[in-house]
Amino acid sequence: MTTAAHKPTHLPHVHVNATAVTQATAARYVFALARLSLGWIFIWAFIDKMWGLGHETTSKQAWINGGSPTKGFLKMAAAGPFKSFYNSFAGAGWADWLFMTALAGIGIALILGIGMRIAATSAVVLLVMMWSAVLPPANNLFMDEHLIYALVIIGLALTTAGDTLGLGRRWSNTALVRRFPILK
């Protein structure tokens, strides 16, 4: 009786670094929490300006009650080299609509973890404009939280932070996003 030679099949040795896996998992959750936190900042600003819950905006100043979400800041707080530029459209209807739409859209996208590329781009534009409206910043020669938020949001978009504790992975697999990757 002859037997065929049996050649064992070996899988290549794969070394799994448990520490690296744990760190990567922890980092994903930290980035997800940063995304959710920043999303809440934008959503809260929208909610407070829309309904005047009394934190920064009184009920009388609420957009729903005829107040302007841009007038106070752009008219009274704007300072520095761009003061006259921002004063020129403080309280304009188009500015109010654009500002409130940006707050809501960016906040929703960050919280859901979808549309991170457009949300990041929009957030950077909005945050840099808010930063430039009050130059120089009160506590530093040039740096303030608006620029830090902008950098963090860019990082979140680049690291697919919407996939963890968000709908980013599902969103990315939709036919619409596969056809138009800018929506990722």
List keywords for this structure.
mainly alpha, 184 residues
Could you write a compact summary of the structure shown?
The protein has helices at 18-51, 71-77, 83-87, 93-112, 116-132, 145-158, 168-172, 175-179.
Radius of gyration: 23 Å
- Total domain modules: 1
What structural class results from the helix and strand content? mainly alpha
Average predicted confidence as pLDDT: 93
Question: Strand tally, please?
Answer: 0
**Shape from CA axes?**
elongated
Order of helices and strands: HHHHHHHH
**Ends apart, CA distance between termini:** 63 Å
Percentage of residues assigned to helices: 55-70%
Detail the poorly predicted runs. Answer: none
Beta-strand content estimate: under 5%
User: What is the assembly state of the chains in this entry?
Assistant: single chain
Note the main sheet: none
Helix tally equals 8
What can you see in these coordinates?
The termini are far apart. The chain has 184 residues and is an all-alpha fold. It has helices at 18-51, 71-77, 83-87, 93-112, 116-132, 145-158, 168-172, 175-179. The longest helix is centred in the N-terminal third of the chain and has 34 residues, at 18-51. The chain has one domain.
Record the SSE blueprint.
Blueprint: H1 18-51, H2 71-77, H3 83-87, H4 93-112, H5 116-132, H6 145-158, H7 168-172, H8 175-179
